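Weekly structure sync, notes
Attendees: PL (lead), two postdocs, one rotation student
Agenda item 3: pending single-chain targets
PL asked that the sequence for the first pending target be pasted directly into the notes so everyone works from the same version. It is reproduced below exactly as submitted, 309 residues in total.
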Amino acid sequence: MLAASIIICTHNPRKEYLERTLKSLREQALPRDLWELVVVDNLSSRPVAKEFDLSWHPRSRHLLEQEIGLSSARQRGIKETSGGVLIFVDDDNVLAPDYLVEALGIASGFPFLGVWGSGSIVPEFEVEPKDHLKGMLIWLAVRDVEKPVWSNSISFNAPIPFGAGLCVRRNIGEAYLEFYKTSSIKIAGRKGQSLGGHEDFEICYLACRDGLGMGIFPELKIVHLISKNRVTDEHFVKLVEGGTMSKLLLEYKWTGAVPRSPFCAHGLASMMLNLLTKRGFWRKLYFAELRAVIGARRRLALEDVGLVQ
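Predicted structure, written out during the meeting:
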């Protein structure tokens, strides 16, 4: 078995960004005979295989996944690879040259972890975000921790690694394949124009369920290339709506917490207060969160008849 499988899931990638991602992989210190590289094209309008040459790597190939959705692409990558550690790399990630070496070092040095990821995700902006967005950059998977931290707690407050550079032991990846097939509430991640997410969180929760843990490490360094369209007010509003709805569904699925109705007495009072006090972007953000709660409750009502009145 190979030591690692690097899986890049992509849909209509920005050419110069994916080229930099692949260049960072060409420059990895880990010998290429220890790892394979798979690029999963999730039905891009221009076939990725025709645009990007992988011949520099002896164990590389392009795959076409026709079911739209990040979760579908990740699952295809798991099925089609054989490495002991699965490393998911986004098409706008530039890995430090020692990323793969460090990732495998963590695999051997921390056998109690089932998943781990980058604690140093540094943004490189095409256009600098406005001041009011700078406090929300965690929504763009920006992170900086000073020391390793891990947990086996199924909670959003735990140190959960993001999907960018996510490292997963093969047995956990294969458990995810089986879990997804039998799950009534699908956490599908990005899907077309939808900005849902948290399929990476579900993989982490599965590791905890199976007696392992999750961790983040500053030794795993990534530069995250962020295009100008991702630092607009409109994108953040859409991102918060999709991400919040996915979070609520995931919380119900794993903890049984039902999203509270916004139309109860407390919710209506909160609504009136927010309408009176919030303006501009912050009002739009509030309504995005409100739509997410309503959408999650509607989805749960369809999935589990009688759950939500």
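Discussion points:
- The chain is about 40% helix and 20% strand.
- The mean pLDDT is 92.
Action: rotation student to compare against the earlier draft before next sync.
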